[in-house]
């Protein structure tokens, strides 16, 4: 049973959408299989997704949404989220899926901003997400988009106030070109943006060394 939600939020008209996959053996963190094996990849993915959901859930920043690839009734999802908080991704690639989530949220009159994150950055904490929301709501220096870059050329966080479907088009998802191409798309759309500090994520075997400093943190979730 998910824990009780905060009675109030810092940004009640915002939403924080966590993107994830159904944790299926052989279908998550596959690039790490040579180092961890199939079961190790699954265990790490479950731990990282659990950590991300708890971080957002307990942050008190904005209501949580979980957007998943399949099986919205999976036991891990329901451990941290209520059914009403879980949504099925729609689209052929990651860009289309994020664009769909953005449209669904930001076309609602009760929602004024959206943060989308994944679960690949275990160092992403409440303060980092809060900086993204603060940038979106800064009236003295308004921006259209907030991005949290990753050291491998992608991004771990995107914040929007309008659907901005063009930001997600013509991107080579899963490559080192994602951030560069996204910046080009924003320039083409004449969008003003704010960049947060880059974070490291866990997607390749060489990234595993960085996890050593977070062993205690992730061990909390490795049994889930």
What does this structure look like?
- There is one protein chain.
- By secondary structure, the protein is α/β, with parallel strands linked by helices.
- It has a single domain (14-219), classed as Spore Coat Polysaccharide Biosynthesis Protein SpsA, Chain A (Alpha-Beta Complex), CATH 3.90.550.10.
- Helix content is 32%, strand content 15%.
- The protein is built from 6 helices and 7 strands, in the order βαβαβαβαββαβα.
- The protein has helices at 33-57, 75-80, 94-106, 126-136, 178-188, 215-219; strands spanning 14-20, 64-68, 86-88, 113-117, 145-149, 155-160, 193-195.
- Strands 3-2-1-4-6-5-7 form a 7-stranded mixed β-sheet, with helices on both faces.
- It is globular.
- The two termini are 13 Å apart.
- The relative contact order is 0.17.
Between the first and last Cα atoms, what is the distance in angstroms?
Answer: 13 Å
Please summarize the sheet with the most strands. Answer: 7 strands, mixed
User: How is the CATH topology named?
Assistant: Spore Coat Polysaccharide Biosynthesis Protein SpsA, Chain A
Spatial strand order of the main sheet: 3-2-1-4-6-5-7
* Helix/strand order: EHEHEHEHEEHEH
- Rg measurement, Å: 17 Å
Number of helices: 6
CATH class: Alpha Beta
Low-confidence stretches: none
CATH architecture: Alpha-Beta Complex
Question: What percent of residues adopt helix (DSSP H or I)?
Answer: 25-40%
Helix- and strand-based class?
alpha/beta
Mean pLDDT: 93
CATH superfamily: Spore Coat Polysaccharide Biosynthesis Protein SpsA, Chain A
Q: Work out the number of β strands.
A: 7
Percent of residues in β-strands: 15-25%
How many structural domains in the coordinates? Answer: 1
The general outline is globular
